[in-house]
């Protein structure tokens, strides 16, 4: 993965066999909803002005398959024009596959990442103390915490023991307590897609990718599809204080989603999400390479339980939401100086993949060096009205 991928790399293992929805910027028209088909990308904006409208329709997968629209171009052609350095602004390029949905994320839903959050808290965001804190926490909590069901009597009993020992943490509270951590990852329309630069705040000295599966959820609380996401995280910022979570999570281009939204149908559904194995690859311009893999089966809370905590009588999302389900990775291997752990370098290529959803690839840049987010909801509405789609 030393270069941008081609279409065969980013598509799911069964190619265009699934109901794949995406978004493309069309010069002169603006964002367009596309169906990803064997012969290329078809603009179905006339049928579905937004991906939100598609997800709110009855049986979105069947509706997408039945939709007619102009063929824009082949996927390879549009993908090749997506990286900003070589982009021809007169030709179309790929966008994140969601639009008006709220971009939400669930935190500490895997034991490994939960313990890493506790470590960040203990060392106050200083990577140099992480190794010692990691061993101390593991001795105290043990690895069998992975078997605990959040909110169970057993989890409550462990909490009592840890509180008595002065070892309780706000991250353990949301990791094994009754209430999940669900937060707003990014504003509507700010997510970046496959082939785009992903942003890390230049002041951060300890940060990492967070590879995740993300669910598309309708306004009624139904999970209607899935995609891949990178919930880019600043470990030093969050470690200083959990109240700095917005600064750690929401920076320019720090929410990546894609490559496409695969809608649920008879061949792909929530059980495929539960069974997914996700791989992470990081390749640096300096020759550095990190590879890892993990299983969604290790998640502490079922994806639909997280959806139920996201949306219900107390929280409504009339345009639906996309929900990052939490990361199963927390890279800890030293990259630079001993004891400093992993952190990104400018120019890292990050690939997140699973066979049924394809591969999301982004280049890491400083957030102020990424393309600024300038196209908002009012701009989208004006562009759809101008083309007669509303």
Automatic annotation (TrEMBL):
InterPro entries: FAH (IPR051121), Fumarylacetoacetase-like_C (IPR011234), Fumarylacetoacetase_C_sf (IPR036663). Keywords: Hydrolase, Metal-binding. Residues 224-364 form the Fumarylacetoacetase-like C-terminal domain. Coiled coil: none annotated. SUPFAM superfamilies: FAH (SSF56529). The keyword Metal-binding applies. Signal peptide: none annotated. Belongs to the FAH family. It holds the Pfam family FAA_hydrolase. One of its GO terms (molecular function) is hydrolase activity. This is Fumarylacetoacetate hydrolase family protein. It comes from Streptomyces olivaceus.
């Amino acid at each position: 993965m030393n270069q941008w991928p081609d279409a065969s790399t980013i598509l799911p293992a069964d190619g265009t066999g699934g109901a794949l929805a995406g978004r493309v910027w069309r010069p002169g028209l603006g964002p367009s909803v596309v169906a990803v088909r064997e012969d290329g990308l078809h603009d179905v904006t006339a049928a579905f002005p937004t991906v939100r409208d598609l997800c709110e329709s009855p049986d979105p997968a069947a509706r997408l398959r039945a939709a007619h629209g102009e063929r824009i171009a082949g996927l390879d052609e549009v993908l090749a024009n997506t990286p900003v350095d070589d982009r021809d602004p007169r030709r179309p390029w790929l966008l994140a596959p969601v639009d008006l949905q709220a971009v939400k994320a669930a935190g500490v839903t895997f034991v490994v990442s939960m313990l890493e959050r506790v470590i960040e808290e203990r060392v106050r965001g200083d990577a140099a103390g992480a190794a010692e804190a990691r061993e101390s926490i593991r001795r105290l909590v043990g690895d069998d915490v992975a078997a605990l069901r959040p909110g169970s009597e057993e989890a409550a009993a462990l909490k009592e023991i840890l509180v008595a020992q002065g070892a309780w943490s706000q991250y353990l509270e949301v990791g094994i307590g009754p209430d999940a951590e669900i937060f707003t990852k990014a504003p509507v329309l700010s997510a970046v897609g496959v082939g785009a630069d992903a942003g890390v705040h230049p002041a951060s000295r300890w940060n990492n990718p967070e590879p995740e599966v993300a669910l598309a959820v309708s306004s009624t609380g139904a999970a209607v599809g899935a995609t891949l996401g990178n919930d880019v995280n600043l470990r030093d910022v969050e470690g200083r204080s959990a109240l700095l979570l917005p600064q750690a999570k929401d920076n320019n281009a720090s929410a990546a989603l894609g490559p496409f939204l695969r809608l649920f149908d008879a061949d792909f559904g929530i059980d495929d999400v539960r069974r997914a194995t996700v791989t992470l690859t990081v390749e640096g311009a300096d020759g550095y390479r990190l590879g890892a893999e993990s299983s969604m089966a290790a998640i502490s809370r079922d994806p639909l339980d997280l959806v139920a905590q996201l949306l219900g009588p107390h929280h409504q999302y009339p345009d639906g939401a996309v929900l990052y389900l939490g990361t199963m990775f927390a890279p800890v291997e030293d990259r630079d100086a001993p004891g400093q752990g992993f952190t990104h370098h400018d120019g890292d290529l990050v690939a997140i993949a699973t066979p049924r959803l394809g591969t999301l690839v982004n280049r890491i840049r400083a957030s102020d060096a990424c393309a600024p987010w300038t196209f908002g909801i009012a701009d989208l509405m004006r562009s759809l009205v101008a083309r007669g789609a509303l």
